[in-house]
Amino acid sequence: MFIFARLNHGEHRFRDLESRQCPTVLWELVVSSVAVVLFAVVLVVLVALLVAAGTGKLARLDGATYPAALMRSAAAFAAVLTLAAAVTGALSAILN
Q1: Whether 77 contacts 51, CB under 8 Å
Q2: Residue 37 — pLDDT band, cuts 50, 70, 90?
């Protein structure tokens, strides 16, 4: 049994496709400073919400009432936002 294959097997198929292909233009992704600031704010608020939820859950497991657990979680939320603001202020003072 003999198998005869062309020297450049499959070349004819790709040559036919070249005329039908559209040129692909890749655009560079430009992220503005406003988008970076908004992303950072969303990330800080998300972390603050997660800390507040964890604090409230731990307070309830400790036996605190719902209003007391809510007050603890609100305090933790405010503490995380205050810490983020203090770190941002310190970094902006150092970098500028």
Answers
A1: yes
A2: confident
Only one residue has tokens 């062309």, namely: 6
How far apart (Å, rounded) are the C-alpha atoms in residues 54 and 57?
5
Supply 29's token pair: 């992704």
Read off the tokens for 87: 């770190």
CA-CA distance, 66 to 59, in Å (whole number)?
Answer: 9
Q: Which residues fall within 8 angstroms of residue 49, CB to CB, at 6 or more apart?
A: 77
User: If we measure between CA atoms, which residue out of 42, 46, 40, 51 comes closest to residue 74?
Assistant: 51
Q: What's the pTM value of the predicted model, to 2 decimals?
A: 0.66
| Alpha carbon 24 to chain centroid, angstroms | 27
